[in-house]
Amino acid sequence: MKTSVKKCLFPAAGYGTRFLPATKAIPKEMLPILTKPLLQYGVEEARSAGIDTMAIVTGRGKRAIEDHFDRSYELEHQIDGTPKEELMKEIRDIVKNCTISYTRQVEMKGLGHAILTGETLIGDEPFAVILADDLCDNGDNEPILSQMVKLYAQYQCSIVAVEEVPPKDTNKYGVVAGEFITPDIMRVNNMVEKPEPKDAPSNLAIIGRYILTPDIFDIIREVKPGKGGEIQITDALLEQAKQGKVIAYKFKGKRFDCGSVDGFVQATNYFYAKSNI
Ligand code: G1P
Fold it and tell me: What spacing in Å lies between the alpha carbon of 30 and ligand 1's midpoint?
């Protein structure tokens, strides 16, 4: 098994119903914060962590994603030599330097199932997972996935990024508990998907950044449907956690829940204030 993280999986098959009607014909991952689609922010974060192989799990109605990460000859011909070329710099760089492959999730059976669908693109090596609707900004720190890839080199086990949330919000997240081995790193021994506040083992919530070891695929295959009748990655990770093979990392940086309208607007305002637009 490889010991470094060279691939990143992006589950991107969900319907994005909270953003209807915008997501009727446009994948939610293509909704922009300012001028850049959420998924492109995710791909850029992966690249900054030294990853240039992207595996995207798509579904019906998601073709705009493939078109985005491709050349657009007519458009590019139009803007060549004009100041607008600058706006295409980052996406051109991704298209030129990354390998991006796709597979389709035919049925929506949960995040665990989406990740298992990506097995064919990942194979037998550790990999990162980015949920593009959790948009992260690292400020003066190094990018969050990059922080996690470094930790992987040290711990060689699955890693989840966590942050403290108000106790009333535990039912929106996977929640972890365990023992801190440094001020920022916890050896996880319990994980619950979206517990009600009274049942939550802590207020440390998983956000959409994971590094997973490939034995997770066999575990997901065995996991029974959990919360909402779906195959949950949290439940599969609990099996690894029971063997001491999961750490939770209190990352340095800021995260926006762009899967909610509130978080989306906050992210827009935050990135606008930072931009030169
Ligand atoms: C998923 C996971 C959950 C995690 C969250 C992070 O939930 O199931 O454990 O805390 O992502 O965003 P979703 O937001 O897809 O319902």
Answer: 19
Band of pLDDT at residue 140, cut at 50, 70 and 90: confident
Using CA atoms in the order 257, 265, 64, 18, what is the torsion angle rounded to 10 degrees? Answer: 70
| For range 27-50, the mean pLDDT | 96
CATH superfamily for domain 7-274: Spore Coat Polysaccharide Biosynthesis Protein SpsA; Chain A (3.90.550.10)
State the greatest distance between any 2 C-alpha atoms of the chain, in Å, as a whole number: 60
d(CA 95, CA 103): 18
The amino acid present at 109, given as its one-letter code, is: K
Between CA 95 and CA 119, with CA 91 as vertex, the angle to 5 degrees is 55
Residue 15 has pLDDT above 90, yes or no: no
Tell me how far the alpha carbon of residue 131 lies from the centroid of ligand 1, in angstroms. 8
Q: Which atom of ligand 1 is nearest to the CA of 174?
A: 9
Contact 192, 199 (CB under 8 A): yes
pLDDT mean across residues, the chain: 95
Quote the pLDDT of residue 138.
Answer: 85
Distance CA 32, CA 30 (A): 6
Domain boundaries defined on the chain? 7-274
